[in-house]
Amino acid sequence: MEKPELLIPAGNLEKLRTAILYGADAVYIGVEGLSLRASSSEMSMGDLAAGVNEAHAKGIKVYAAANTFARNADLEHAAEIIPKLAAIGIDAIIVSDPGMIRLIHTLTPDLPIHLSTQANTTNIEAVRFWRDQGVRRIILARELNLKEIGEITAAVPGMELELFVHGAMCMAYSGRCFLSAFRNRRSANEGDCSQPCRWEYLLHESTRPNDPLVLQENERYSYLLSSKDLCLLEYLPEILASGVTSLKIEGRMKSAYYVAIVTRTYRQALAALIQQKEKYNCRPEWIEELTKISNRGYTTGFAFSKEKINETNPEIKYIQTHEPAGTVLQYDPVKKMMLIGVRNHLAAGDALELLLPDDKVLINTHTIIDVHGKTLQEANNDNQIYLPLERAVPVGAVLRQKVK
Ligand code: SF4
Questions:
Q1: pTM of the prediction?
Q2: How many secondary structure helices (H) and strands (E) does the chain include?
Q3: Structural domains in the chain?
């Protein structure tokens, strides 16, 4: 069985390091300036250069997303950035726009090109077309099912194919939607969707603007446009059998905590699958791990579907059973204490779980000590505290607790 690549989103240096710690084979990042606007999910060129060095030192690849549909006025700017990306050693550039592909061929002909899912590649001839344009890898449309993907890998052998296995889904063909541009001038077509399809909407009758028709399920509003999240963890054998080479997790805008849990879970499942082959079974605790992070209910999307529609969950905005409690900033082997950057609120006696790449450790919070050595009864977001732990743990490991 071929070992597939586990490809993780890394919106900043912290997330890149988290992805490395928890088992990514490759990460993808946004680059400041290439989506042609500032965004919290993009790295500066300086951070990116540092991230590429750190990743390469561990044998991990870094792909830069430039999947905007560029306008004429954007090309000059893109032409400045692309050679810089090649110079700092990124392993591939992800694009959707044929104009960007031509520009890359002209400026940096040796830089591998990955075609974004926003190019909506859905058939064998489209894959051949892009291969003939010098594209190294295609990130397949989320809307394909595994049977169609198997037909593509059989018909176009040797082509690298990447598949989204986890994360948010669109209510349009991926990213081909103006809702975000319309609501707050952030265009999905330029890689900057603010995901307004997840927002709460009310239906108003025009003569009664103050009397909304609430399409209500239980106690909540309805999230009519909000797709469930994709989760294919249970179907890794079927996915590998389809012949794809890279398994991609969505979520450059999501937190380092999300990156940690999803990477760790898929890494453990993939390692078990590669080792156990036909005897492999998806363990219930892996599925449970993914229900502990924020999600809108999970779906297998189009993987087994003949239908050409997506699945919504009108009742749910977000659900999660656990929340981040902190990150390890340092471990002192002499004092046997870990320095923690606190997330959310923590009180002495709270039950915390420290997630290591291959282990979980219950943490005693009866002794919370601040950086001046004073014992505390509680700590708040962004505080730094010491907690005792006998064993050494890596910087960047995350702690969580049940949602209070
Ligand atoms: S608003 Fe929703 S459907 Fe539209 S591009 Fe963004 S995530 Fe996709």
A1: 0.92
A2: 10, 23
A3: 5-175+226-299 (3.20.20.70), 322-402 (2.40.30.10)
